[in-house]
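The instructor's notes for this session suggest beginning with a concrete chain rather than abstract definitions. Hand out the sequence below and ask the class to guess, before any prediction is shown, which regions might be ordered.
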Amino acid sequence: MNNFRFSKIIAWVWPTLAKETVLSKVINMVDVFRISLSGGFDDNNKKYIDTIMKLDNSKTIMLETRGADIRVKNVLDIKVRDKQNIEIDYSEYAQEHDKKIFLDAPFLHELKIGQQIKFQQSGVVIKIKSSKPESIIAEVIQGGRIVQFDRAIFSNYEYAIPFLGEREKKDILRGLEYGIHIIAASLTKSKADIFELKQFLATKHADKLKIFAKIENKEGLTHFKEILESADGVILVFDKIDKLLKETKWTDELLIQECKKIGKPVVVTFVGKFDGKNYVLINETQAKKFCALGADACMIDTMLREDDPLALITELSEILDKFELKLHEKELPRFYENNEFMVRDYIIYNAYRATKEVNPRAIVSYTENWYSAARLSSLAPKVPVIAFTKNDETYRYLNMLRGVRGYKISLSFSYENLKRVGKEMIRIIFKGNISLDDKIIIMQANESLSDEKTGMINGLELYKFKNI
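After discussion, reveal the predicted structure:
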């Protein structure tokens, strides 16, 4: 029995989950906490970040841009029945109201009579009945309970929202001020979107921040390769792109394989389906397939059972524990050939190959810019990778990588420190259940022969645990 999970979990910080009593129960199962800008960045988000960092400051905070995500702004649930009339209005801000629906849709008054709006989480469907400058009245087609901040879907209606609007920029700046570590860029359509976001971050001295592109529309699929090259990783929203895959050359398997081919992490989302009465979030068959393909992380895209986030996260964690090492056997790609970084990549390639030939219990490595850890992770080894870094952005990024546990080290950290601390981390991960004769690999993958900063020699070293 060990204290290590290979597949990472990303959970949305929802008001119920954000309570310290709840967070303290799930903190060890969640690697990354996601804050969405669909409701703007307010003081509650700062409290969420402060609470998470208080409980465990090794966690990564992901800020997700709004994109074209339209949400209910009511902080109270709204009960509606079939054929009931209800008023709708536009609001950017949260509203304590349960008799009127507020949506952050600036185009609301442009909607025509007969336009249907479905609320994703609750399954409620309404239809515009009358529209006047001062009010919009809708008829309830399918009743139920519209939950706070539910996502609104406008059937057969295309609306344009800037990829990076002024409101979004202000919210990102607040996020930077309060300590976010990674940005998830919603509705990325091309590499130009990633460059726009990078340029904005550079003007705010945050150019080292990692960016994950969310692929959730046809444009994103069409330009998938160029987006992958430009971003630091991708998030595949399969509930939105499943039907679109048939219109392109991609399949879910090919998308994940493309990420693995160039050594960048891939996140898959669980959004769930409405079965007429309840939302079913975790599809075990789907989770098994994603594990087999070596997906780095599973993201709970929306907190669908607000009353029991512990049960939801525990359910996903147990499924991942069950399937995460049941990988598809594949031929190891020789990614180091004809490569300007051939020495570095050859070392990583052989570190993975050694896991098959000498059966080590773990790999210990040092990484400055994340590449060696991410490239090794993309090969999906079945042993833990313990990665040390002096760089804070790299440290937070390691939480996104399958099979990697990152540790932040001081600037004066040396090779001898790495062996000593690495040995202790292995003991903790395996809860002491490790033999003195078990093998450990130490990897340093650079182009130069040695690293003057750490004193590490480029290459692989094989030790017995007792000799480290």
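Then share the key points. DSSP finds 14 helices and 23 strands in the chain. The first strand starts at residue 8 and ends at 12.
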